[in-house]
Amino acid sequence: MIRSEQDSRRRARLVARELQLAISSPHHTLYFHGESMGPLLIEGDEVVVEPVEWERIRPGDIITYRYRDRFPTRRVIRKSDTGLELWCDNWPDRSFTAARADVLGRAIARRRDGVWLTVRDREWARARRTAVRRYLQLVVFPPLYLRARSTAGWVLRKLGLRRRSAGR
Amino acid sequence: MAVPQRSDPLAPPLGGCRSCYQAVYFLRRRACQLKAEDVVRYQANDARVAWRVVEGEGVLLHAVTSGYYGLNQTGTLLWQQLVARPSSVEELATWVGEHLTGAPEDPAVEVAGFIAQLLQYDLIDAAVPGAEALAPGQPVSLLQADGAEYEPPLVSPFGELEKLILSGE
Lengths: 168, 169
Description:
Helix content of chain B: 25-40%
Order of helices and strands of chain A: HEEEEEEEEH
Largest sheet of chain A: 8 strands, antiparallel
Largest sheet of chain B: 4 strands, antiparallel
Number of helices of chain B: 4
Oligomer: heterodimer
Number of strands of chain B: 9
Structural class of chain A: alpha+beta
Radius of gyration of chain B: 17 Å
């Protein structure tokens, strides 16, 4: 297959950008753009992303993945054999998916105003817990709660312990 | 850099760009100045260069300068040799002659030009003497490249990357 020089250059650029991500370190940080992951990550934060094995990814991790020529960075809320479901801490009404092959790495540290915060720090862990809890409250618990309540009502009615309420 | 006289036996054959021609001449003169046991070998600059091969062609990223480079297929095979172990121009040329089809009679000229390019972009280093362990005559054949078509090895500089932006919008 004959590729034009422009295609080769574009492809090389994309590969080089992925390499840039692979070698990120405190000396070669990446720039975070946007407000969707605030307050943990905000516009202008310097971020370090490390390559991660698929088996080690856990719900609550912040993952960078390949999407066309961009590198979205979002929080994992669910993991399946084929991919990840992700959302942004600031956009709980939207979710995203990433195929397993597109996952490039996991955010492990950020620097803001010269101060480092790493995945081992309490603030990072707190943001992780808060995001997961919020997801559970908004997405998982409401359907479970409603189903459990209706099931409990049905059982109580069958047992004669509760009458169908009239007029309500 | 010195410009060779036509009568100089070390002068490479005419052709190619002027800087490559001069670089080949320089490397040849340098090689002659050294003793036989001091053959210069080169190795990939692991500490500063990240690389990946996609569909047979290599992409190199220099971590310090953020410059990125493309290698053609022969260049990629030679690069993998340099990653695997320190190699001299002659060893690489021998490997090319033995494993690639359509290689010229004296691939050392083009290999030397390729090495000069890699040196120019700080993608390889001269190996520490003693780091190399090839026995005389032992072919550098770590890769299954037999039968690949030869093309003059080439490094294409594509420019410098700006800081990578993680999209969180």
